[in-house]
Design a protein that fits this description.
28% of the residues lie in helices and 21% in strands. By secondary structure, the protein is α/β, with parallel strands linked by helices. Helix 4 (122-134) packs across helix 5.
Length: 226
């Protein structure tokens, strides 16, 4: 896994994990792998964790099985996950709760390990905190997007004195002590005011409308993926 690129953009420090195949969580997916050969994840159609899991499992010689809602046209990220080697299972009546139930039943039946939404587990939070502490900066203000809220809570461990801001893009995340902002777009909609660098269109990109008018000079934005 390559090192970090931090770009100075519009007076901000931007962690450029859009340059990593699979994004930030690809950096830490190995921490989840155990003795099991197969790992199961229930993903929103536009979710990025499916991409991180697919690439990470392929590199580790593991099998990734991803459950998603049935769609006439697969989302580009689901296609990327399949191309990286993941098995895709489409679920009828695909509310995320139903997709998660089907994934759980499959894992229970097969002995595969079911991964939590957003990879929200202690191993991943600890790994993300360790990665943050390895950076050559100690920010005073940190912005992230929050799906599950895993990233912001991990960074709060690393930088306890920083002020944190988290942008909600779907259901209410768990964000620790971060200040909450709520993106107006629906989860699968692209950001209407994206940043001037590659950023996941329905995810990280939605933070930019809030950052550009509210972030302090020198604040850090953690851009998870392209």
């Amino acid at each position: 896994m390559s090192g970090f690129t931090i770009s100075q953009i519009d007076g901000l420090q931007v962690v450029r994990d859009d340059l990593i195949t699979g994004g930030t969580k690809r950096r830490v997916i190995d921490r989840i792998f155990r003795a099991e050969d197969e790992y199961v994840y229930a993903s929103p159609a536009a979710g990025y964790a499916q991409v991180a899991l697919a690439h990470g499992a392929a590199a580790a010689g593991k099998r990734a099985t991803i459950f998603v809602a049935r769609r006439a046209q697969w989302h580009a990220r689901t296609k990327e996950a399949q191309a990286a080697g993941a098995t895709i299972v489409q679920v009828e009546h695909g509310y995320l709760s139903n997709v998660q139930a089907k994934a759980r039943a499959y894992a229970n039946a097969t002995g595969a390990r079911l991964l939590p939404f957003g990879f929200d587990c202690a191993e991943v939070r600890t790994a993300l905190a360790e990665i943050a502490l390895s950076l050559p900066i100690t920010p005073r203000e940190v912005w992230t997007v929050a799906g599950s809220g895993t990233l912001t809570r991990a960074l709060q461990i690393a930088w306890p004195r920083a002020a944190f801001h988290a942008v909600q893009i779907g259901k209410a995340p768990t964000i620790g002590r971060a200040k909450l902002w709520i993106a107006p777009e629906k989860f699968e909609e692209n950001a209407k005011e994206p940043p001037p660098f590659p950023s996941c269109s329905n995810y990280d990109a939605k933070a930019w409308r809030f950052i550009k008018g509210n972030a302090r000079p020198g604040a850090l934005f953690w851009n998870v993926a392209a």
